[in-house]
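pasting input
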Amino acid sequence: MNLLDIVLFLPAIGFIIGLLLPRENTSLIRNFTIAFSLLVFVVSLGLIPNVLDNPGGSSFVTDRVWIEYPAIRYHVALDGLSLWLVILSTLLTPICVLISWKYIQKQTKGFYAFLLLLEFGVIGVFVSLDLFLFYVFWEVSLVPMYFLIGIWGHEKRIYAAVKFFLYTLTGSLLMLAAIIWLYNKSGTFDLLLLTDMIQKGRLALTSGESFWLFLAFFFAFAIKVPLFPLHTWLPDAHGEAPTAGSVMLASVMLKMGTYAIIRVCLPLFPNAAREAAPYIITLAIIGIIYGALVAMVQPNMKRLVAYSSVSHLGFVILGIFTFTQTGMDGAVYQMLSHGVSTGALFILVGYLYERRHSLEIADFGGVSTPAPWLSTVFVITTLASVGLPLLNNFVGEFLVLQAAMQVNILYAAFAAVGVILSSVYMLWMVQRTFFGETPDEVKRHVFDMTGREWAAMVPLLILMVWMGIGTQSFLPPIRANNVKTLEMVQPPAAAINAQAAPVKAVVEVRDAN
Amino acid sequence: MPINFVPTAADLLRLSPDILLTVGGALMMIIEPLTGPSKKSRLGYIAAFLIACAIALSVAAYSNPGTSFSGMLVVDGFSTFFRLIVYGCGLLTVLMSIDYFNRERGDESGEYYALIVFSLVGQSLMASANELVLIFIGLEISSISGYIMAGYIRDDKRNNEAALKYFLLGSFATAFMLYGVAWIYGLTGSTNLDAVRRAILGGAQDQIGSMLIIATILIFVGFAFKISAAPFHIWAPDVYQGAPAPVAGFLSAGPKAAAFAMLIRVACSAFYPLSDQWEPLFWATALATMVIGNFAALRQSNIKRMLAYSSIAHAGYILVAVTAQSETGIAAVMFYLAAYTLMTMGVFAAVTLVASKGERYVEIEDFAGLMQRQPLIAGVLTVFLFSLIGIPLTGGFFAKFYVFKSALDANLIWLTILGLLNSAVAAFYYLRVLVVMFMKPAPAGLETMAAPGIAIKVTLLVSAIGTVYLGVYPSAVLDFAGKAAQIVR
């Protein structure tokens, strides 16, 4: 039992204790959950030093038998790729408790219990190195989110919850078939072992086989990301979820998809991934532009932010499938940045909803007069989201665009359109909401941020700036891990020589400049 | 061949659970009129005790496995596993029935418990018979008790309809089976499974090939009816809807498990030489059963009817593993039935409670706001429903996992993919119950539910704990199933 096991299982314990609390005593439930989730966060900070010391390898490894036959192991570990995602999850859970403090009035006990169960599920996904275990956590994280949307969401919540559940389940069942197929071929579910077997050629998959397996995995992950055209569940789920649900969904659960692509798809099926890359990149770029265009015409703030996620996640996919160091670094950085800034946007939209009980942009206007601080924070977050230099999203988008440029100038050109569009829809929304005439309704209902609301936002604001300026605090472990992944994805030696030349030329040209 | 007609001690030990239940059930019939009014539920506890003893005896019988009564009966891991499943199912049914009949008939129903016990004798014989005629006898004992149980509340129209339908269609199907057995006897000169297998292997196949196929198809029709496989599933929704809720639960688990036991035993021992011919038949039946069950369940508004179609769909998943015709496939079937029995009994116990007196609340909409009204029932029902969907950390997940793993092992790729997509469809109708339970408010003016009695609470908790146990630590049961599956051939 090491620190990682503790961080993983604490939320599950919290879930069980939470269920045993008396359901009338709302304040006890809230206090317990905030204290407990803060505890998990503090403990999880202890994970950082070890991983930073050993960024390319696995830390906190536990590898035990769970079920003897078929050989399913409880194999968890942390490395440079998963570290920040785990920390992001543990950070956002207490924040979600804070923002739900007043907002969640009915069935509080269930709400906070599900929040902790969700934390358990997502951390589990990020640390599992056994495909079976990974699948288990993947499904476990689905259940609490289904309830969060379905019970505490807005009007069309039931439709949205069921749609979300069925979409994800369909994808993951195909993944299950692929996992079983791999097991029947190799006799193990262990991801590292499988990777090793494939890299060394001990597990020979025909190209047809590895193509279908890649597709089965990728389909499950692409639904989660979501990649165009599999994104249709996302606006509904986001639009209808309670604020905390939207935050966890956008900041953490979407990352499960992109994380899994890097963790599972690339090392296991490098050839298939390389062959599919142009098509996937095309879909990603369509997603970037399509998401931005649809966001522009959304009358509903939450759906606007939701479509902006489709656009931002397109960048992540684009970065991954450039198969370059810069592109992958940018993609992972963008995952984290999107988690922070879009999470913050959903929180702020939630604040506005709590005041005005509406999400329609048309119902707002001139909010900056009654609530100057709220507006300031919103503008900062918006600027972070549209990729202003010195704020977090700029780093990821810049790296991804740079990598796209190296691969194909057209990719970069089209993706850059997405960046421009993102400032159009975000700033236009800010303008319509916060500036101009202040309607009476807004004057009457909208007030400035309270202490509790500040407490939820401050950590995210700090992170936006820190991640924008202090890139070096976060990037090294990510980079070390990407180096490893890239080695596995690279084509065999002969092909490298053929491809290395133009890349080198680019570097030389840059150096000359 | 000299045959000793005096059974040996080992023979008696191997049959002892059935002897105990037969004698015990007969005694209960005698005691019943002597028991004073409104004390009849004591018979329920006696039945529970008898079944518990039978469980102990079948474990004891397993200490000395082998055939008995001139090879008519076989006690091995396989039959013991299924004995335990049907007895366990019977025990849970008795426990939830005590509450039910106290509520519906004011504690005036003693014979019912004897009928359950008799039905278990039949199912246990089905699971352990090594002989086509004995299989038939077991099937009839189980079915006839089942017909009466389905119509037990005889002044209720729905009960009458259920019993009549079950009886008519059931006798029709068993007639088919008996006809098939007769053909087999004519073709091979024996009804003993081992002898039939030897006859088929012994070159007779070429001369009697096509007739043998017809005979096996006739027998298969009988089995397909009992496991409610398409297209012989038509009876199930009407019977489940009409029968008392605990009986519906019993019928969807116990006889089904026993029928699968005999289907596997027959297909994998006597007719194993014909497995090539069986495979397409199983393949098509499995797919049709899954598709029909799931898509029909989508449209149901009555929860008992929905569960009936869901049980048809589950029979389809199990048939996927049967199609694999491998040891892992058989082990998967065994595990599936264990998990399925637990979750089905649990769901029907919850339905029994929510239905209230006269079974007035059996629409899915009637579960509205259950989380607010009865958090405990809603909580365990959630576990069962997630298990039926196949979400990890429940028994239903590992059951599906093993089934589809064995199918992929046998290279049944398309059947696996179609089966998995089917279970995504299934998620939709189970989610509807969850949606109603958690996300819709209780209708105004609803009378408060009676507090659940101890016995039915035990049913709920045992099923829930069992379901979660199989979902977290499936090794123990699976290991046993894996070993037992090797003995079959």
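fyi The longest strand of chain A covers residues 59-67.
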